[in-house]
Task: inverse folding
């Protein structure tokens, strides 16, 4: 039997959870299809990798092609022999380990610097063992290693014309940190190889590690069979308490004992769950409603947040609003008037959106958004990025009110909320019959992907038009839902 080899990806999986490592090797059939938003994140990560190569120009790509790892190893060795100074995606093996390195740069003295590219805007804990295992494999393969460097996106970069990679990236020297991890790397590698040599998946319970540092693709397998509202859905309940409940054999939220250590909000949710009846604080709802001034502008934005900024004056991962919906009511219970804006995808959507806001939101009345901190932050950013309109935009932020507030403060708790207060969760409980189910675009993430599809410019006209209609329907539904939820709050008050 050939000796087992472990890849860098598997090594990182093993550090997160031994069961993930084992399932990845032997039960790939349990991996669900990649969600579209995650596929998009991978694409973005790849685009950042490619841009990083512009920083270290003139390198050679050690492409794997159909020959897979063996071909990549051969090609890398050939490039090194031929005197390449910079190699992208070089493959190296040190017996039990196989790694691909984002960038290798030869130094004057014949040593090689390893550059690990990350699309985050800073160094994260998990980046160090990731680089350390590559350094270990390189040295094991006989490469004379110089520095180990982490290359991440510079979060304060502001686009102005073509992207300059030297300004877009930040380089950190992490040679010392990776050296310190050598013993741990060797120990981990031994443990992971033993795990892969076992005929059975390790018995690892679910826990914090299922989503930290990465979302595990086996959640659907390991988390199956949990009750609908389980102890893992209790908002802001620490893992120590979840583990304590599990050790007591308690998985359903409603089975949590009354004397268990919960905070007041969790306790109220528990009593609603046990009784099956909503909790209503009418005085608090009235207080919230008194804070609204008419005409009322129900406002919602949709945004994209590209890693590599698309528009001048924007930063990496900046939330760029491309769409807005407004439902305007002149007095409580009034039939709302609907107005909307959607960028045309050919240019920066923000100037048009600013005009839409300033032309349609009058000088009086409250702006109501669901989780208004998001809309407020976007308006402030628009004011910062378009100083000519700053005064008008900033005047809006002082009028912002949050429709999520009465739910977040538990002035109203419905058993169907199941510990969540997003609009998608609150709406069907407050306004039965009004739902996002069946809509072609039914959440913010899908809206974002749809707009990015429009931006690609590759869609046939009819399909692009359909997407635009679906986007309008979705964003309009958000503000109409707010009108209906508010109506219900008036009813309760
Ligand atoms: S879902 Fe959790 S327990 Fe299961 S393999 Fe993934 S990380 Fe491990």
Result:
């Amino acid at each position: 039997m050939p000796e087992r080899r472990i890849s860098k990806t598997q090594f990182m999986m093993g550090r997160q959870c031994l069961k993930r490592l084992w399932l990845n090797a032997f039960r790939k059939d349990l991996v669900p299809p990649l969600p579209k938003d995650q596929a998009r994140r991978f694409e973005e990560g790849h685009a950042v990798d490619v841009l990083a190569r512009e920083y270290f120009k003139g390198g050679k790509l050690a492409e794997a092609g159909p020959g897979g790892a063996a071909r990549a190893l051969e090609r890398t060795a050939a490039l090194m022999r031929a005197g390449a100074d910079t190699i992208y995606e070089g493959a190296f093996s040190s017996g039990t380990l196989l790694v691909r390195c984002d960038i290798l740069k030869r130094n004057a003295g014949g040593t090689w610097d390893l550059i690990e590219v990350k699309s985050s805007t800073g160094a994260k804990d998990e980046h160090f063992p990731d680089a350390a295992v590559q350094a270990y494999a390189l040295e094991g393969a006989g490469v004379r290693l110089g520095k180990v460097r982490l290359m991440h996106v510079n979060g304060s970069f502001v686009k102005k014309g073509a992207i300059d990679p030297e300004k877009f990236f930040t380089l950190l020297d992490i040679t010392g940190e990776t050296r310190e991890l050598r013993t741990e790397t060797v120990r981990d590698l031994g443990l992971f190889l033993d795990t892969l040599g076992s005929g059975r998946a390790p018995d690892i319970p679910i826990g914090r590690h299922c989503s930290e540092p990465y979302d595990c693709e086996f959640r659907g397998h390991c988390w199956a069979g949990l009750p609908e509202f389980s102890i893992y859905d209790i908002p802001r309940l620490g893992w120590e308490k979840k583990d304590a409940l599990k050790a007591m054999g308690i998985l359903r939220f409603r089975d949590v004992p009354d004397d268990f250590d919960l905070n007041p909000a969790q306790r109220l949710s528990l009593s609603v769950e046990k009784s099956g009846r909503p909790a209503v604080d009418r005085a608090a709802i009235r207080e919230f409603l008194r804070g609204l001034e008419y005409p009322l502008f129900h406002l919602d934005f949709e945004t994209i947040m590209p890693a590599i900024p698309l528009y001048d004056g924007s930063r990496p991962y900046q939330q760029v609003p491309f769409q807005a919906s407004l439902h305007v009511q002149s007095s409580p219970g009034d039939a709302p008037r609907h107005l909307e804006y959607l960028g045309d995808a050919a240019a920066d959507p923000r100037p048009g959106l600013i005009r839409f806001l300033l032309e349609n939101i009058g000088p009086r009345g409250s702006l109501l958004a669901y989780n208004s901190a998001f809309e407020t932050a976007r308006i402030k950013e628009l004011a910062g990025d378009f100083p000519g309109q700053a005064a008008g935009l900033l005047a809006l932020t002082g009028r912002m009110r949050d429709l999520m507030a009465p739910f977040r403060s538990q002035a109203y708790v419905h058993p169907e909320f199941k510990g969540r207060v997003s609009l998608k969760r609150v709406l069907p409980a407050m306004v039965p019959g009004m739902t996002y189910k069946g809509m072609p675009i039914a959440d913010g993430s899908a809206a974002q992907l749809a707009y990015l599809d429009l931006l690609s410019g590759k869609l046939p006209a009819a399909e692009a038009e359909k997407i635009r209609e679906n986007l309008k329907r979705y964003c309009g539904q958000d503000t109409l839902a707010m009108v209906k939820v508010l109506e219900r709050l008036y009813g309760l008050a």
Remarks:
- Residues 17, 19-20, 23, 204, 206, 209-210, 216, 218-219, 222 surround iron/sulfur cluster (CB under 6 Å).
- The chain is about 45% helix and 15% strand.
- The domain at 284-492 is CATH 3.30.420.10 (Nucleotidyltransferase; domain 5).
- The mean pLDDT is 95.
